[in-house]
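Researcher: Next entry: DUF7344 domain-containing protein (Halorubrum californiense DSM 19288).
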Amino acid sequence: MPNISGRRLLFFLSIEQLGSVDGTVSVNELSTLVAARETGERPPPTRCRESVYTSVVQTHLPKLASSGFIDYESDRGLVSLTEESRQLEVYLEVVSENEILWGEYYAGLAVVCGLLAIAGWTGTAPFDTVSGYAYAAFFALLFGASGLAHRTSTKRNRLG
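Model: Predicted structure:
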Protein backbone atom coordinates (compact mmCIF):
# COMPACT_ATOMS: atom_id res chain seq x y z
CA MET A 1 0.00 0.00 0.00
CA PRO A 2 1.39 3.43 -0.89
CA ASN A 3 2.11 6.08 1.70
CA ILE A 4 -1.00 8.24 1.52
CA SER A 5 -0.63 11.79 2.84
CA GLY A 6 -3.13 13.36 5.18
CA ARG A 7 -4.22 15.73 2.47
CA ARG A 8 -4.97 12.89 0.04
CA LEU A 9 -6.90 11.14 2.80
CA LEU A 10 -8.93 14.32 3.22
CA PHE A 11 -9.67 14.21 -0.51
CA PHE A 12 -10.60 10.56 -0.19
CA LEU A 13 -13.05 11.26 2.61
CA SER A 14 -14.50 14.16 0.66
CA ILE A 15 -15.05 11.89 -2.33
CA GLU A 16 -16.85 9.43 -0.08
CA GLN A 17 -19.01 12.15 1.47
CA LEU A 18 -19.97 13.88 -1.78
CA GLY A 19 -20.38 10.70 -3.78
CA SER A 20 -22.63 8.96 -1.28
CA VAL A 21 -25.78 9.35 -3.42
CA ASP A 22 -24.66 7.98 -6.79
CA GLY A 23 -21.03 7.12 -6.05
CA THR A 24 -19.57 9.88 -8.24
CA VAL A 25 -18.35 13.39 -7.47
CA SER A 26 -17.04 16.14 -9.73
CA VAL A 27 -13.52 17.46 -9.27
CA ASN A 28 -15.00 20.97 -8.84
CA GLU A 29 -17.27 19.85 -5.98
CA LEU A 30 -14.40 17.97 -4.38
CA SER A 31 -12.03 20.95 -4.60
CA THR A 32 -14.64 23.30 -3.16
CA LEU A 33 -15.33 21.03 -0.19
CA VAL A 34 -11.65 20.45 0.57
CA ALA A 35 -10.87 24.18 0.31
CA ALA A 36 -13.79 24.93 2.64
CA ARG A 37 -12.49 22.39 5.16
CA GLU A 38 -8.97 23.78 5.01
CA THR A 39 -10.00 27.43 5.39
CA GLY A 40 -13.11 27.02 7.53
CA GLU A 41 -14.95 29.38 5.17
CA ARG A 42 -18.04 28.60 3.11
CA PRO A 43 -17.71 29.28 0.29
CA PRO A 44 -13.92 29.12 0.37
CA PRO A 45 -11.84 31.95 -1.09
CA THR A 46 -11.42 31.59 -4.86
CA ARG A 47 -7.62 31.60 -4.66
CA CYS A 48 -7.63 28.72 -2.14
CA ARG A 49 -10.16 26.70 -4.15
CA GLU A 50 -8.10 27.16 -7.31
CA SER A 51 -4.93 26.08 -5.49
CA VAL A 52 -6.67 22.99 -4.14
CA TYR A 53 -8.11 22.21 -7.58
CA THR A 54 -4.65 22.35 -9.15
CA SER A 55 -3.17 20.12 -6.45
CA VAL A 56 -6.04 17.65 -6.70
CA VAL A 57 -5.88 17.37 -10.49
CA GLN A 58 -2.10 17.30 -10.85
CA THR A 59 -1.10 15.21 -7.84
CA HIS A 60 -3.66 13.62 -5.55
CA LEU A 61 -6.25 12.15 -7.91
CA PRO A 62 -3.63 10.59 -10.22
CA LYS A 63 -1.89 8.99 -7.21
CA LEU A 64 -5.14 7.60 -5.78
CA ALA A 65 -6.16 6.39 -9.26
CA SER A 66 -2.79 4.70 -9.87
CA SER A 67 -3.14 3.01 -6.48
CA GLY A 68 -6.52 1.67 -7.56
CA PHE A 69 -8.54 3.39 -4.83
CA ILE A 70 -10.55 5.63 -7.18
CA ASP A 71 -11.70 5.78 -10.78
CA TYR A 72 -10.75 9.17 -12.18
CA GLU A 73 -12.23 10.30 -15.49
CA SER A 74 -10.02 13.32 -16.13
CA ASP A 75 -11.74 14.17 -19.42
CA ARG A 76 -15.14 14.42 -17.67
CA GLY A 77 -13.83 15.68 -14.31
CA LEU A 78 -15.48 12.85 -12.34
CA VAL A 79 -14.21 10.71 -9.47
CA SER A 80 -15.67 7.59 -7.86
CA LEU A 81 -14.51 5.02 -5.31
CA THR A 82 -13.44 1.51 -6.28
CA GLU A 83 -13.79 -1.72 -4.35
CA GLU A 84 -10.09 -1.38 -3.50
CA SER A 85 -10.95 1.71 -1.43
CA ARG A 86 -12.31 -0.58 1.30
CA GLN A 87 -8.68 -1.44 2.12
CA LEU A 88 -8.27 2.08 3.50
CA GLU A 89 -11.02 1.68 6.12
CA VAL A 90 -8.55 0.40 8.68
CA TYR A 91 -6.61 3.68 8.42
CA LEU A 92 -9.60 6.00 8.63
CA GLU A 93 -11.59 7.11 11.64
CA VAL A 94 -14.44 9.37 10.70
CA VAL A 95 -15.67 11.69 13.46
CA SER A 96 -17.71 14.86 13.48
CA GLU A 97 -16.59 18.05 15.19
CA ASN A 98 -18.35 17.24 18.47
CA GLU A 99 -16.98 13.69 18.77
CA ILE A 100 -13.66 12.41 20.07
CA LEU A 101 -11.39 9.82 18.47
CA TRP A 102 -11.72 6.30 19.81
CA GLY A 103 -8.04 6.32 20.76
CA GLU A 104 -8.65 9.36 22.97
CA TYR A 105 -11.71 7.69 24.50
CA TYR A 106 -9.78 4.51 25.38
CA ALA A 107 -6.86 6.52 26.79
CA GLY A 108 -9.27 8.45 29.03
CA LEU A 109 -11.02 5.25 30.07
CA ALA A 110 -7.68 3.67 31.00
CA VAL A 111 -6.76 6.72 33.10
CA VAL A 112 -10.09 6.59 34.97
CA CYS A 113 -9.76 2.85 35.58
CA GLY A 114 -6.16 3.31 36.71
CA LEU A 115 -7.14 6.04 39.17
CA LEU A 116 -9.95 3.85 40.55
CA ALA A 117 -7.54 0.95 40.97
CA ILE A 118 -4.96 3.16 42.73
CA ALA A 119 -7.65 4.59 45.01
CA GLY A 120 -8.75 1.08 45.98
CA TRP A 121 -5.19 -0.21 46.40
CA THR A 122 -4.12 2.71 48.63
CA GLY A 123 -7.18 2.33 50.85
CA THR A 124 -8.84 5.61 49.91
CA ALA A 125 -12.42 5.69 51.19
CA PRO A 126 -14.95 4.73 49.83
CA PHE A 127 -12.95 2.83 47.16
CA ASP A 128 -11.27 0.59 49.76
CA THR A 129 -14.61 -1.14 50.46
CA VAL A 130 -14.81 -2.61 46.95
CA SER A 131 -13.04 -5.91 46.30
CA GLY A 132 -10.45 -6.36 43.59
CA TYR A 133 -12.75 -8.88 41.88
CA ALA A 134 -15.52 -6.28 41.68
CA TYR A 135 -13.09 -3.79 40.13
CA ALA A 136 -11.92 -6.41 37.63
CA ALA A 137 -15.51 -7.27 36.67
CA PHE A 138 -16.43 -3.59 36.37
CA PHE A 139 -13.40 -2.81 34.19
CA ALA A 140 -14.06 -5.84 31.97
CA LEU A 141 -17.70 -4.82 31.56
CA LEU A 142 -16.71 -1.22 30.85
CA PHE A 143 -14.13 -2.13 28.20
CA GLY A 144 -16.45 -4.78 26.71
CA ALA A 145 -19.31 -2.29 26.34
CA SER A 146 -16.88 0.26 24.89
CA GLY A 147 -15.63 -2.30 22.38
CA LEU A 148 -19.18 -3.06 21.26
CA ALA A 149 -19.94 0.65 20.88
CA HIS A 150 -16.70 1.10 18.91
CA ARG A 151 -17.58 -1.82 16.62
CA THR A 152 -21.08 -0.44 16.00
CA SER A 153 -19.69 3.01 15.24
CA THR A 154 -17.07 1.58 12.87
CA LYS A 155 -19.65 -0.46 10.96
CA ARG A 156 -21.86 2.63 10.60
CA ASN A 157 -18.97 4.65 9.15
CA ARG A 158 -17.81 2.08 6.59
CA LEU A 159 -17.02 3.32 3.13
CA GLY A 160 -18.87 2.19 0.03
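Model: Note for the record: The chain has two domains: 6-91, 102-156.
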